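RECORD TYPE: inverse folding
INPUT: structure tokens
STRUCTURE:
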């Protein structure tokens, strides 16, 4: 588990090497094993036989984070506090063996793994763009413990430490050096150890600043009136940006403020108590469940058809060099694939190449890539106007305008150049896959690959299975999506697929509230305060009111005689047909837009749907917006549009921005309480009609625990 090597200069190298594990994980086993190591080092120091310590790893990664399964199940704050205090002692032992300690990091060091490095006196990282370091616990609704927030504060100061601790970023070595959380880079593993030894020999009496008299926190403490005013401004910005929906970020700021006023030991205890209470919060449980357990169940193939070998993609063809096609291109080439980008002319395709080039420059400035890598990356992108250049591609993705005839034309041209095994994906958002596949000779090789804009950034891809799509094609599509580091969810070929179908209910419920007489500003603020990216009316404008109405018309066709018209339909038809206000693209929808993109709610709304609700129940308004989405997601599970709670949760958060602190649509029901949710939904069903009717699948959630959590797939 832990091996030691000592050289002739009396420098000890500690090598983490946990047996039977792919990565070294910080848990009670490794902390217990470290105690006799520290004792031995202290004895050797007392005997004059120790000059310094290097921490390194024998795995691909340096150290991985803590035990999230334990944190998910923990419910006793006192127990969690004791465990955090134990981690604090481990870190203090590490940074006080009597000699300087260097972390020589040649692989990923994230979460608690980087916190170990933070407890070292000096951090050197291998300058490999694949390596990532950082403290991303906030992405799981958590915060560091063991004094790591306090150490970061002493390293950077309150104002610089706060964004590092709350961004959730995985920093490349170059980025980490720029922000100041590491001290040096090495170009090779040999140089990494050489630099570590050289630093130790030149800094024999190095101590942490908080262990020395007269040292102060950079930038001052919260006792400084000017600094505390800036901290208050930061707190106000956080509240405005998150509507107080992010307890982890708020808690981190509180620890920085409180910890700056006291000694180091007391500050660590404050941090550990705050950590213990945060772990027990519903938000933390929700986010661990979805962004750790559900994510890993998808990653391990919970929805991948069995019995098919791994699809190893090397070369991708993309039809259409607009923002979507260019974004998909970027996602492919930055993950090591080659791309043939086609458009109606090579000159137009070159515009896509220019977009990709500019984005690579951005990534170089951020430190994700080196400038020296750009030439090789861009050489893997070829532009063309000839479908024949797709002949040796493993997969071709069509990303042209949302026009059925055009999509069928360009995919047929591509298919004519491809072998019998190449798959074709379409990025359609509203045209049935079964319809589009009618133009092809091999419809079994055709699948929907619905990326979300901007395609290079949004981590979700809907894999839409048409009536003729083979299971092997689905398996290959999943492998491709994971190859470009995205999350694949498999959905059925129905209107709106999964994400757009459920998102539409949020829009429609907001429009119904407008019709009922609720002020439009109230409706919009309710949506944003819940944590959704846009209010329902602004989102309707962004999508285009015709598309919103089209999805509802497709629902009417799908359900036939069982369909009950949504009350918002009359508003949409008035806006589109009578008022000719169709959305942001026309600069006229529920909002008015000027030439610079600024917007205000259209004053004419009150002439057609006058606000008359002077008294209202804010909780009921909020729940209507959320329940509408959740119930539609449940219907999607009832109808096998989506087949796992894990996919439903991740699809909701990444697909349309369902509040991440809830853990997603299915996790929302669990957190709310299934019985309580059923009772409340019945009230809304009685008051507002058919759209709040619950599907039978919800009853299964009471009797089948494995339906609720994808935990079993992780274990």
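DESIGNED SEQUENCE:
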């Amino acid at each position: 588990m832990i091996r030691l090597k000592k050289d002739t200069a009396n420098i000890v190298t500690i090598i983490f090497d946990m047996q039977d594990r792919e990565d070294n994980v910080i848990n009670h086993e490794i902390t217990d094993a470290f105690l006799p190591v520290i004792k031995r080092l202290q004895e050797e120091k007392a005997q004059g036989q120790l000059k310094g310590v290097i921490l390194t790893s024998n795995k691909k990664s340096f150290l991985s984070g803590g035990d999230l399964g334990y944190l998910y199940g923990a419910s006793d704050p006192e127990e969690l506090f004791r465990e955090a205090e134990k981690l604090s002692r481990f870190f203090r032992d590490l940074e006080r063996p009597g000699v300087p300690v260097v972390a020589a990091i040649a692989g990923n060091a994230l979460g608690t793994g980087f916190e170990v490095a933070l407890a070292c006196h000096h951090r050197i990282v291998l300058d490999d763009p694949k390596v990532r370091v950082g403290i991303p616990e906030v992405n799981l609704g958590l915060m560091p413990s063991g004094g790591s927030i306090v150490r970061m504060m002493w390293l950077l100061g309150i104002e610089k430490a706060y964004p590092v601790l709350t961004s959730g970023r995985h920093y490349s070595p170059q980025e980490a050096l720029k922000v100041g959380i590491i001290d040096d880079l090495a170009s090779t593993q040999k140089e990494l150890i050489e630099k570590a030894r050289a630093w130790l020999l030149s800094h024999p009496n190095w101590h942490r600043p908080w262990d020395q008299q007269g040292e102060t926190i950079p930038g001052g403490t919260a006792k400084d009136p000017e600094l505390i005013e800036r901290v208050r401004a930061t707190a106000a910005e956080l509240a405005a940006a998150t509507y107080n929906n992010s307890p982890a970020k708020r808690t981190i700021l509180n620890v920085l403020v409180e910890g700056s006023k006291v000694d180091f030991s007391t500050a660590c205890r404050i941090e550990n108590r705050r950590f213990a209470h945060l772990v027990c919060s519903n938000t933390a449980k929700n986010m661990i469940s979805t962004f750790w357990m559900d994510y890993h169940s998808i990653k391990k193939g919970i929805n991948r058809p069995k019995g098919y070998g791994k699809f190893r993609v090397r070369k991708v063809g993309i039809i259409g060099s607009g923002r979507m096609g260019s974004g998909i291109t970027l996602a492919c080439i930055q993950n090591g694939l080659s791309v043939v980008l086609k458009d109606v002319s090579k000159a137009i395709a070159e515009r896509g190449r220019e977009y990709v080039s500019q984005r690579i420059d951005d990534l170089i400035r951020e430190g994700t890539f080196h400038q020296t890598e750009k030439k090789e990356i861009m050489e893997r992108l070829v532009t063309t106007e000839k479908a024949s250049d797709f002949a040796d591609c493993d997969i071709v993705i069509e990303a042209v305008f949302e026009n059925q005839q055009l999509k069928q034309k360009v995919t047929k041209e591509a298919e004519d150049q491809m072998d019998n095994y190449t798959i074709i994906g379409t990025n359609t958002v509203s045209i049935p896959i079964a319809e589009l596949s009618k133009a092809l000779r091999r419809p079994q090789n055709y699948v929907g690959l619905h990326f979300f804009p901007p395609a290079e950034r949004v981590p979700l891809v809907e894999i839409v299975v048409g009536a003729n799509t083979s299971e092997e094609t689905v398996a290959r599509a999943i492998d491709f999506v994971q190859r470009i580091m995205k999350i694949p969810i498999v959905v059925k070929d129905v209107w709106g697929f999964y994400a757009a179908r459920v998102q539409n209910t949020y829009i429609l419920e907001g429009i119904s509230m407008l019709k009922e007489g609720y002020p439009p500003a109230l409706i919009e603020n309710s949506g944003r305060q819940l944590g959704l990216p846009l209010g329902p009316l602004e989102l309707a404008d962004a999508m285009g009111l015709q598309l919103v109405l089209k999805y509802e018309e497709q629902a009417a066709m799908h359900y036939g005689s069982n369909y009950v018209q949504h009350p918002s339909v009359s508003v949409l038809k008035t806006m589109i047909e009578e008022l000719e206000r169709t959305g942001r693209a026309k600069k006229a929808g529920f909002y008015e837009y000027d030439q610079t993109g600024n917007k205000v709610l259209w004053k004419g709304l009150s002439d057609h749907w006058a606000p008359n609700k002077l008294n209202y129940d804010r909780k009921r308004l909020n729940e209507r917006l959320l329940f509408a989405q959740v119930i539609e997601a449940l219907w999607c599970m009832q109808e096998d549009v989506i087949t796992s709670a894990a996919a439903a949760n991740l699809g909701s958060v990444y697909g349309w921005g369902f509040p991440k602190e809830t853990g997603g649509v299915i996790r929302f029901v669990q957190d709310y309480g299934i019985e309580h949710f059923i009772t409340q939904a019945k009230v809304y069903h009685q008051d507002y009609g058919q759209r709040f009717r619950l599907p039978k699948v919800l009853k299964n959630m009471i009797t089948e625990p494995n339906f609720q959590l994808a935990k079993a797939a992780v274990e």
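NOTES: The chain has 31 helices and 18 strands.
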